[in-house]
Amino acid sequence: MKLIEIKARCSNPSKVRQLLLQQPNIQFIGVDTQVDTYFKIPSGRLKLREGNIENSLIYYDRENKKDAKKSEVTLYKPAEVASLKAVLVAALPTLIVVEKKREIYFIDHIKFHIDTLTALGSFLEIEVIDATDAMDIIKMKEQCQFYINLLNVQKEDLIENSYSDLLQI
């Protein structure tokens, strides 16, 4: 699947939450405590996500830039995550482990995260998701920009890197 996404520092998660909950068709999925184990691979990123809501093996490739960026994502949802983790840890070197609390919201095919990481603070992510490869990239970027404006995300708050990069700096 492809995504258009942004990540931004979020100085006021309560305000973002309030604005999201005022939107028609908003769906609150829940609060997930997630552990993402990143593995060293030759290109792209490979992480195993363990949570109480989301459990996935995720490979993705995207450029590091502050603006809305395109990601190519391959997602596998294992029936049993502990065995998969044992295999991955045995086969690949671990790069870093990222722990976060994530609030998950959806409006149609657009996913919103309000993330809190002890070492880094609070962040907002907006992901416009095209699971069928049927959407136009320009339209996806326009949808992302609509929510950037609605949620009052400032250009200086945009982050180009992943949490794994920020924790390694």
What's the helix and strand layout?
Elements: E1 2-9, H1 13-21, E2 26-39, E3 45-50, E4 56-62, E5 69-76, H2 81-91, E6 94-107, E7 110-117, E8 121-130, H3 137-150, E9 158-159, H4 163-168
Antiparallel strand pairs: 1-5, 1-8, 1-9, 2-3, 2-6, 3-4, 4-5, 6-7, 7-8
Q: What count of domains describes the coordinates?
A: 1
Shape field = globular
For CATH, the homologous superfamily is named as Hypothetical Protein Pfu-838710-001
Outline the low-pLDDT stretches. Answer: none
Would you give an account of this structure?
The chain has 169 residues and is of the alpha+beta class. It contains four helices and nine strands. The protein has one domain: Beta Barrel (Hypothetical Protein Pfu-838710-001). 24% of the residues lie in helices and 46% in strands. Strands 1-5-4-3-2-6-7-8 form an eight-stranded antiparallel beta barrel. The chain is globular, with a radius of gyration of 16 Å. The two termini are 29 Å apart. The relative contact order is 0.26.
In brief:
The model has no long low-confidence stretch (mean pLDDT 96). Helix content is 24%, strand content 46%. It is built from four helices and nine strands, in the order E-H-E-E-E-E-H-E-E-E-H-E-H.
